[in-house]
Amino acid sequence: MNMWGLSPQFLDVLESGFLEFLDNLDEKDAAKKEYLLPKIIDKLPAEKKAEVTLLETPDKWFGVTYKEDKPLVVEAIRGGLRRGCIRKRKFRFSGDLQNICQRVWHDRHQKLLLQAKRRK
């Protein structure tokens, strides 16, 4: 399982890399292409732009990339709940934090759309 702790400046790295990703996107297989966070982060130490610390865990990762993945992940989570290795907790953003996150995402998304349109 990947869980990242990143600085706010990392959003700038993601943004510039995403524009490059869009520029190099081939239309015929664009629906299957992914802008993968692990690949982006993997390049940074090699370029001497960041340090990465790995913390290991014995837990198993379950990912949902396609809708067909969902039933397997739901059953895996239910099994973890039954075995007691996953605790059932409710998590909720506070209203202010949620609004801030949505506003930041919206602003960055709009900026990327404008930049992508200008490149065409």
Please give a structural write-up.
Helices cover 52% and strands 0% of the residues. The protein is built from four helices and no strands. With 120 residues, the protein is an all-alpha fold. It has helices at residues 10-23, 37-46, 70-83, 95-119. Helix 1 (10-23) runs parallel beside helix 4. The radius of gyration is 18 Å and the shape is globular.
List the helices and strands and how they pair.
Layout: H1 10-23, H2 37-46, H3 70-83, H4 95-119
Helix pairs in contact: 1-4
Please report the distance between the alpha carbons of the first and last residues.
Answer: 37 Å
Q: How much helical structure, as a percent, in the residues? A: 40-55%
What is the H/E string?
Answer: HHHH
**What is the beta-strand fraction?**
under 5%
* Distinct helical segment count: 4
**Sequence stretches where pLDDT stays below 50 over 5 or more residues:** none
- Rg computed from alpha carbons, rounded to a whole number of angstroms: 18 Å
- Count of individual beta strands: 0
